Amino acid sequence: MALLLSPVVFCGQYLGQIPLSGQLEGQSSGEYSRLRVQLRDMGNRNSISEAQVNPVGSFEFSNSPTGIFEIRVLNWQGDTILSQSVTLPYSNILRLKVGSGSFVPARMPVSLSRLQHNVPKKALNAYRHGREALTNGQREPARIELEAALRLDPQYFEAANDLGVLYLQEGRFSEAYEMFQRATTIDPGDAQAEANLAFVLLALKRFPEAEEAARSSVRADSLSSQARFLLAVSLLEQKKLPKEAMFHLAKAKDQFEPARKLWLRLAVK
Predict the structure, then answer these.
(1) 40-58: per-residue pLDDT in tens?
(2) Residue 93 lies in a domain
(3) Which domain holds residue 254?
(4) How many domains does the chain have?
(5) How far is 180 from 186, CA to CA, in rounded Å?
(6) Residues 264, 268, 269: CA angle, nearest 5 degrees
(7) What CATH number should be reported for the domain holding residue 231?
(8) pLDDT per residue over 89-135, tens digit each?
(9) Cα 141 from Cα 80, distance rounded (Å)
(10) Could you tell me where the DSSP H helices lie in the chain?
(11) What's the mean pLDDT in 153-172?
């Protein structure tokens, strides 16, 4: 069955779709403008959106749905020179090395606790099979393998996070919350995991808890524009601390398009 992807509909009035932006590396400056980037459905491989690369190598998709997608970089002849998977909204700022074909999400450090954790071989194999199934658009086998990986190793951070992404993609917010909550318990210092948790808590309209998770994310990574945006949204949804909300939006607006749009919207009131 093809992996069908659709935007997540949020109950809150401030949280919309998250843009996807990126920077290409590995080419001379004059070559970037000859490239284009496609966001494609992982199941049927159809192109969802396409962006032209500017002369300095950057690109942006202003309205990207939530889910697991293929990022494809094409040259002027239409040949694919890079193809990688990307999970949105959790990897919405990318660096793509078109020379080597590698893919590096921005600001995704691995914590010491995860580096020291030894994943059992059976759990690792199940996780790899799950990721392969996701790449092939096989959602149910992917879920089975990821759940198996987590049963074999309850402290498997990546398995918990990826299951959360699957559940979020399907609109199963409560199950996604459980997985992201587990991920933050496994690694309390992971800024992205806390941002993931804040994101789904906003979808569940649990705004005070979303604020707490977003604050944890900001404490872990004060440079994260996404975390500051989520914190601002959680404050605005509670109708509290408007000055602080605007402060975080102002900090985030130059790097995060939703923050800029919301800041402009509120600044003119």
Answers:
(1) 775 555 677 888 888 778 8
(2) yes
(3) 112-117+155-267
(4) 2
(5) 10
(6) 120
(7) 1.25.40.10
(8) 555 567 777 764 433 344 445 566 667 788 899 999 999 898 888 76
(9) 28
(10) 29-32, 112-116, 121-135, 139-152, 157-169, 173-186, 191-203, 207-220, 225-237, 242-252, 257-267
(11) 86
